[in-house]
């Protein structure tokens, strides 16, 4: 009996030693970064910029693996079901972690239990834009138009349950207004119709719309950020324009499967923060309208929980269901 107990303890000791050695040698092979969207979009661009720098610091390539589809559910599920060794990690955004749990009655992942939170990546400020011919020249005039004809002023989004849609619903709830939501399959066709005057307004995120704003093809009434944006210095914040406390971003974070070793999380976060502070990367992201979102694992976990609470209430009040 004593001999059997000794063998069990010895085997456990060997396993622990092997695990510790594996963690201490991390990374010993390339790291896969899962992006839950197609190549070329904002999520993909952020990941590719950061992956190059992180690969240099890690001493191993960080390879982007695009797994688009089902409102990020396919990619998120792949990450959640991967081995917790640090070699499969990826992007999880506001939709993955804050919106989907409130909009789907069942998911193939659990946003609270199936991930290790590594750090923040970036956030894309949302702005309320209108077609240049729209008669309102500021936010108060826009609200006056909306209240004069409830349900007739249209506002586009990139699809039901998207950050642009839930931002609109939050705006409607905060301003007690009735605005007609027009859902598109993606932000590109929605922006095209906004520029064409087929819809009158839209909450847009800056990376895909910045060139259109600068060209005067759409006009921004207010930014949904606490301070004015340096790239749009003449545009007031929502608070300045008369809607205090209204903030809305599309944001992205870096996660791995649950139960990642603490040493692996610490290493990945360290190199992620270094990449986000790189002057060249930072300048490139800010040029695109992306605000780097450097956070510790604990800060990112707390931020995610606060976002889940906020948007779950908005989504429930708006009765947004996607299944």
Describe the structure.
This protein is an alpha/beta fold and 323 residues long. It has two domains: 2-123 and 251-318, D-Maltodextrin-Binding Protein, domain 2 (3-Layer(aba) Sandwich); 125-223, Periplasmic binding protein-like II (D-Maltodextrin-Binding Protein, domain 2, 3-Layer(aba) Sandwich). It is 46% helix and 19% strand. It contains eleven helices and ten strands. The chain has helices spanning 2-24, 42-58, 73-80, 94-103, 139-148, 163-175, 187-196, 206-214, 262-277, 279-287, 297-318; strands spanning 31-35, 62-66, 88-93, 115-130, 154-157, 180-183, 201-205, 219-223, 249-257, 291-292. Strands 1, 2, 3, 4, 5, 6, 7, 8, 9 and 10 form a ten-stranded mixed sheet that branches. α4 packs parallel to α11 (297-318) and α6 crosses α11 (297-318). The radius of gyration is 22 Å and the shape is globular. The termini are far apart.
Instruction: Let me know the average pLDDT.
Output: 92
CATH topology of the largest domain: D-Maltodextrin-Binding Protein, domain 2
* Strand residue content: 15-25%
Count of strand segments: 10
Instruction: Count up the domains.
Output: 2
Q: Ranges with pLDDT <50 over ≥5 residues?
A: 8-22
Task: Give the terminus-to-terminus CA distance.
Answer: 56 Å
How does CATH name the architecture of the largest domain? 3-Layer(aba) Sandwich
**Topology order in helix (H) and strand (E) letters:** HEHEHEHEHEHEHEHEEHHEH
> What's the CATH H-level superfamily name of the largest domain?
Bordetella uptake gene, domain 1
| Rg computed from alpha carbons, rounded to a whole number of angstroms | 22 Å
């Amino acid at each position: 009996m004593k001999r059997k107990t000794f063998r069990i303890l010895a085997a456990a000791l060997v396993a622990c030693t092997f695990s510790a050695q594996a963690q201490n040698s991390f990374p010993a092979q390339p790291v896969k970064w899962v992006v839950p969207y197609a190549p070329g979009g904002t999520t993909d661009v952020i990941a590719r910029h950061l992956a190059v720098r992180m690969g240099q610091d890690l001493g191993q390539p960080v390879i982007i693996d695009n797994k688009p589809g089902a409102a990020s559910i396919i990619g998120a599920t792949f990450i959640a079901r991967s081995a917790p060794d640090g070699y499969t990690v990826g992007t999880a955004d506001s939709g993955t972690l804050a919106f989907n749990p409130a909009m789907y009655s069942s998911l193939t992942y659990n946003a609270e239990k199936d991930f290790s939170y590594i750090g923040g990546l970036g956030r894309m400020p949302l702005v309320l834009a209108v077609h240049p011919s729209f008669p309102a020249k500021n936010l108060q005039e826009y609200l006056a138009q909306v209240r004069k004809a409830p349900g007739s002023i249209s506002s586009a989004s990139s699809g039901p349950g998207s950050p642009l849609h839930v931002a609109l619903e939050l705006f409607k709830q905060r301003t007690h207004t009735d605005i007609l939501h027009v859902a598109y399959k993606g932000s590109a066709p929605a922006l095209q119709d906004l520029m064409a005057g087929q819809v009158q307004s839209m909450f847009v995120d800056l990376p895909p719309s910045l060139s259109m704003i600068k060209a005067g093809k759409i006009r921004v009434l207010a930014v949904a950020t606490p301070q004015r944006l340096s790239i749009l210095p003449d545009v007031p914040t929502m608070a300045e324009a008369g809607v205090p406390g209204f903030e809305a971003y599309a944001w992205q974070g870096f996660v791995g499967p649950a139960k990642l070793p603490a040493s692996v999380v610490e290493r990945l976060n360290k190199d992620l923060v270094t990449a986000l502070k790189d002057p060249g990367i930072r300048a490139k992201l800010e040029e695109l309208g992306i605000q780097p979102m450097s956070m510790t694992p604990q800060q990112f976990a707390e931020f995610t929980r606060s976002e889940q609470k906020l948007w779950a209430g908005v989504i429930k009040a708006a009765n947004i269901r996607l299944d």
